[in-house]
Each structure stands twice: as C-alpha cells, then as structure tokens.
Specification:
Elements (H helix, E strand, L loop, with lengths): L7 H14 L2 E7 L5 E7 L1 E2 L4 E6 L3 H9 L1 E8 L2 E13 L5 H11 L10 E14 L9 E4 L2 E2 L2
Antiparallel strand pairs: 1-2, 1-5, 3-4, 4-7, 5-6, 6-7, 7-8, 8-9
Length: 150
C-alpha cells in the first residue's frame, strides 16, 4: 500500500476509534524472570483504561499480577496501535457491578459467572504508538508517560 502518511492527530483519532469499537486486543506479558507470553483477550475501554479479565492462575494473569506491566496490540500488522501500560489488578468482586455489567455486555463474556477464578486487570496506557506502513514510522509515538503528545 502506497498512501500518504496520516497526521499524528489522525492516528490518535484512529487509535481512539479502535479503543472504542474493537473488542479484542493482543496481550503480551512476561513472567518475572522474562519468559514471554501472548494471548488475545476481550476488553472494554472507558476513556481512561482498558478493562480485561483472565483466570488468576493463567500465565497472563500471573504475569500481569507479578510485573504490573503489559504491551497491547490493536489492529493488524499493516494498521497497528501499540500500547504499553501499567496494570492494576482487581479481585473479581472488587469492581463495581455496573462496570462488570458493561464489560459483559460489550464482550459477550462475564467472568463473574465462571467457576474458574478470574481477576480483572485495568491497563492504564503510558505509551501509545500507531503506524500503517514504513512511511508512518516517523511520528508514530502518540503518547508518552501517560500524556497524549497530539
């Protein structure tokens, strides 16, 4: 694809659109000793953080709880938004009911109803990058230290 690069403001709008409308995200985590792990998880964006749920004893659940950091990939390889974030871990009953209901309605999955013990994970973006092709590599950083640059 040989199109003109998007402006940083357009990339931010596109990223915010994905956060608002996409339902699934690639979640890359690592154990405390550096063993990588990646899975797709459903999420809900509230304008401040991405809310996800996964079993507490799964590799992702254990990694997020241990390191409190994550890297997320929204979109596909030719139109991606990469998000590095800080993770807040919440027990499944610690989230307000309305917030859990919103997650369940949006994703079609309610971890509160599972026999498997789940936890909530809220991801607060600290760094966001977005690009399509090599012509968008310059200017791909949209957020740094939790603050939008554009």
């Amino acid at each position: 694809m040989n199109t003109d690069p998007r402006s940083p403001a357009r990339r931010r709008r596109d990223t915010e659109h994905r956060l608002t409308h996409d339902v699934d995200v690639w979640v890359a985590s690592a154990s405390a000793d550096g063993v990588p792990y990646m899975v797709p998880l459903s999420f809900d964006w509230d304008g401040e953080a991405l809310l996800m749920a996964t079993p507490a004893d799964s590799p992702t659940g254990m990694n997020l709880a241990a390191t409190r950091t994550v890297r997320l990939g929204l979109g596909h390889t030719r139109d991606v938004s990469m998000i590095e974030g800080e993770v807040e871990v919440l027990e499944i009953d610690a989230l307000p009911r309305e917030r859990g209901d919103r997650f369940a309605a949006r994703t079609g999955f309610d971890p509160r109803a599972s026999a498997t013990p789940y936890r909530w994970f809220r991801v607060f973006p600290r760094r966001v990058q977005a690009w399509r092709e090599v012509n968008e590599m310059s200017g791909r950083e949209l957020m740094r230290d939790g603050r939008w640059l554009v």
